[in-house]
């Protein structure tokens, strides 16, 4: 599809939730970000917004324990025309960190699953997978759960700058095979801003499906 140049402008923290009665009111479209702790979620959100300190970036995983909403405007410019759409970026807690073992073992806190299956405004969920580690069991478990629940999904393969060309091509193909979705995975580097346009266009398509 043809659209003008896309930007995310005026990003700002909106609110946090752990229960459905804390979700924002109204019908603003939501784009959610999910992945293992440390996979690069906060960095991706900051990179899309070109705002370093928006979502906290941490070397110490497992910090974010709430669903965090960021309000942003998706700006589309073509020739004389400029359109702005309000969206929420939804940063979900990372999974795969300090899981309890044995009987209490679970993929993620129940409120994450509740958000994914019941948020009326969720248009697209980005599942982030580290491009260096295409076949981690916990990511495959998350994918299976999401696919079973028919969640609209796009895979983002993170930290692409850390791989050599041949490794990168091979791992991306492996991710595409292990995590089949409507559109192929997008390789992303928050460090180099690589993949940013593809992700912005994916967001645009997800929120303009009228
Ligand atoms: N080289 C490189 N490092 C990254 C990239 N994205 C994230 N990181 C690093 O990975 C670590 C975890 O990132 P963060 O965004 O906090 O992950 P989160 O736990 O998923 O939110 C930090 O040290 C980041 O600087 C990337 O694209 N390239
Ligand atoms: Mg984070």
Automatic annotation (TrEMBL):
<keyword id="KW-0132">Cell division</keyword>
<dbReference type="GO" id="GO:0000917">
    <property type="term" value="P:division septum assembly"/>
</dbReference>
<keyword id="KW-0479">Metal-binding</keyword>
<protein>
    <recommendedName>
        <fullName>Probable GTP-binding protein EngB</fullName>
    </recommendedName>
</protein>
<comment type="function">
    <text>Necessary for normal cell division and for the maintenance of normal septation.</text>
</comment>
<feature type="domain" description="EngB-type G">
    <location>
        <begin position="27"/>
        <end position="209"/>
    </location>
</feature>
<dbReference type="Pfam" id="PF01926">
    <property type="entry name" value="MMR_HSR1"/>
</dbReference>
<dbReference type="InterPro" id="IPR030393">
    <property type="entry name" value="G_ENGB_dom"/>
</dbReference>
<keyword id="KW-0547">Nucleotide-binding</keyword>
<dbReference type="InterPro" id="IPR027417">
    <property type="entry name" value="P-loop_NTPase"/>
</dbReference>
<dbReference type="InterPro" id="IPR006073">
    <property type="entry name" value="GTP-bd"/>
</dbReference>
<comment type="similarity">
    <text>Belongs to the TRAFAC class TrmE-Era-EngA-EngB-Septin-like GTPase superfamily. EngB GTPase family.</text>
</comment>
<keyword id="KW-0460">Magnesium</keyword>
<dbReference type="InterPro" id="IPR019987">
    <property type="entry name" value="GTP-bd_ribosome_bio_YsxC"/>
</dbReference>
<keyword id="KW-0342">GTP-binding</keyword>
<keyword id="KW-0717">Septation</keyword>
<dbReference type="GO" id="GO:0005525">
    <property type="term" value="F:GTP binding"/>
</dbReference>
<dbReference type="GO" id="GO:0046872">
    <property type="term" value="F:metal ion binding"/>
</dbReference>
<keyword id="KW-0131">Cell cycle</keyword>
